[in-house]
Specification:
The strands form five sheets. The chain has a seven-stranded mixed sheet, sandwiched between helices. It contains 15 helices and 20 strands. The protein is an alpha/beta fold.
Length: 557
């Protein structure tokens, strides 16, 4: 999108947003507005909800690229069936798991057709995943070299180590994944005092003073009444959502929500309805229908309506339209669950996540969830909210009742990292890291756009998806980047839509400008080599809907 301020319909504009008289921003879009370069600008009037520009770009897939991508998957599928035929008649050696001859009359243990993709497509690019590293996952890593002599079915380690590989794949947003410094020393001290594990649950003998200190700190950091911490981020979602909603409740879930949120919703027994990604009109339609029609068959009112969203979507790099979601939540008297796994520490002037990013009141979010595994270099997750909510979860959450307590040295690492971000360690290191990450994100995204790559997401998101599309280019991109000593994450179907394979870069405060320049130079070379500079600078909106100026006006409680 065009970055400089301009004019549209006689009104001043800034980064795709209409400026109001009092300095607020009206976000969204109107179809059909385009600049001289053919780039669409999208303006809609959803009330004065935004206090800052909100820019997200999702460029349309070129038609030829889409066709060739489908053709590529079609050819791979045909060859897959041919190879399965050869394996069936023992002409080609079969490496995949199959049922034994004496068990053929049993219910199949392995679903042969469901494993078709793994056998015939994934194996071709398997070397691009699960690469073992043997160092701290900082800005640079050491990687163990491995080779395969049977087309990626098995790997052998050569004994060599690839040194100083630039790490563009870890979620180490603030650079606290390190093996030296005051945080590491504090964690080592706690390790010597408390040991590595607790060997009990929080409700039995596993509740340490360190756990309670962390919970008080997290509540203060988030600006909520109370918080509870858990030993696993995935389980924080999957085990707590069933404690919050059940039969007779309705969950409205974004179509691109993380697997942990999907699993938690399914385990809850609540009715689940999906709205289009970040599409506020789709969400409002579901809310209206839920209020008007109630539960199926009986038409009784829903016991609870819970909106479940992520703050930053890890495959798209997009940021939730939280001001609009909160406005809808208030208008229709529902509850809001926000997963801040990728946003806490990574966005916002003070690193407090997407609520801080938009300058909103934390009390407007009923359940604030996040993890310590990304920005804080630790492990586990948290739930923050009202004291009554947290007290209820302490008694009813499976993660609280049955799961082992978080490891003491990991808890200490998180405490020191959060205090650093808050400036309570007596330094400005945390603030500097937040600022450095923001600068890295803007610089890296701008350079990739100028090179001609199609990149997705919000301009402030530290997750930068670069579109590859074609299946053959997934493995080729990962291998070519590794040849240039750069470790990247590549993602394809079924984790993404079949024509939207991509490489996902994760920016970090531990990246120096020199590291980014080396990576960008390699990207330029590989982009020309693989011909993946697809951008035609014709952006399309994330949402395809008309606007209604009164749709998201807040109502009094």
């Amino acid at each position: 999108m065009k970055q400089g301020p301009g004019k549209l319909g006689g009104q001043p504009r800034a980064n795709g947003c209409t400026l109001t008289k009092n300095g607020g921003l009206k976000n969204g879009y109107v179809r059909g507005a385009a600049d001289a370069h053919g780039q669409n600008h999208h303006i809609a009037h959803n009330g004065i909800l935004y206090k800052r520009p909100f820019n997200e770009a999702f460029e349309e897939t070129p038609m030829l690229v889409a066709v060739l991508t489908y053709v590529g998957y079609g050819v791979l599928t045909l060859f897959g069936y041919l190879r399965d035929f050869l394996r069936y008649w023992k002409i080609e050696k079969c490496h995949h798991a199959t049922d034994r001859e004496e068990q053929l009359d049993f219910v199949p243990l392995y679903q042969d057709f469901e494993n078709f993709y793994t056998r015939n497509l994934y194996m071709r690019v398997r070397d691009s995943w699960n690469r073992p590293i043997c160092s701290v996952p900082g800005g640079m890593v050491d990687m163990m070299e491995r080779v395969s002599h049977d087309y990626n079915w098995t790997f052998k380690y050569t004994g060599k180590v690839i040194k100083d590989v630039i790490n563009m794949g870890s979620y180490n947003y603030l650079g606290y994944a390190q093996n030296n410094g005051s945080l590491t020393e504090s964690a080592a001290k706690v390790l010597s005092q408390y040991g590595a594990g607790v060997c009990s649950t929080r409700q039995e003998m596993g509740n340490l003073d360190k756990h309670e200190e962390l919970e008080r700190l997290v509540a203060r950091f988030l600006g909520v009444e109370s918080a509870m911490v858990y030993g696993m981020g995935f389980a924080t979602n999957s085990m707590n959502i069933p404690a919050l909603v059940g039969k007779g409740c309705l969950i409205l879930s974004d179509e691109l929500n993380h697997a942990s949120l999907v699993l938690g919703a399914r385990l809850s027994g609540a009715t689940i309805r999906i709205f289009k990604h970040n599409n506020m009109q789709s969400l409002e339609k579901l809310l209206k229908d839920a209020i008007v029609y109630g539960q199926p068959r009986t038409h009784r009112p829903w016991k609870k309506i819970l909106i479940v969203v992520e703050a930053i979507y890890s495959m798209e790099g997009s940021i939730v339209r939280l001001p609009e979601v909160i406005a809808l939540k208030k208008k229709y008297k529902s509850y809001l669950y926000v997963d801040e796994a990728h946003s806490i520490g990574a966005v916002g002037p003070s690193g407090r996540g997407v609520v801080d990013y938009f300058g909103l009141n934390p009390k407007d979010v009923d359940i604030m969830m996040g993890t310590f595994t990304k920005s804080f270099g630790g492990a586990g997750g948290y739930i923050g909210g009202k004291k009554e909510l947290i007290d209820y979860l302490r008694a009813h959450s499976h993660s609280a009742v049955y799961a082992t307590s978080p490891s003491p040295p990991v808890v200490e690492q998180i405490i020191k990292a959060i205090k650093s971000v808050m400036g309570e360690d007596g330094t400005t290191i945390g603030k500097q890291r937040i600022q450095h990450l923001s600068e890295n994100v803007r610089y890296f995204r701008r350079q990739l756009k100028e090179m001609g790559f199609i990149i997705y997401g919000n301009e402030d998101s530290p997750i930068v998806p670069v579109m590859l599309y074609m299946p053959a280019k997934i493995g080729a991109f990962g291998r070519e980047m590794l040849k240039r000593n750069i470790a990247v994450v590549v993602v394809g179907f079924p984790a993404t839509p079949i024509i939207e394979s991509r490489a996902r870069f994760c920016l970090s405060a531990s990246h120096t400008r020199e590291m980014l320049d080396i990576t960008l130079k390699a990207m330029d070379e590989v982009g020309d080599l693989l011909q993946i500079k697809y951008s035609r600078h014709r952006l399309v909106p994330l949402l395809d809907r008309p606007f209604d100026e009164t749709t998201y006006e807040e109502t009094e409680d």
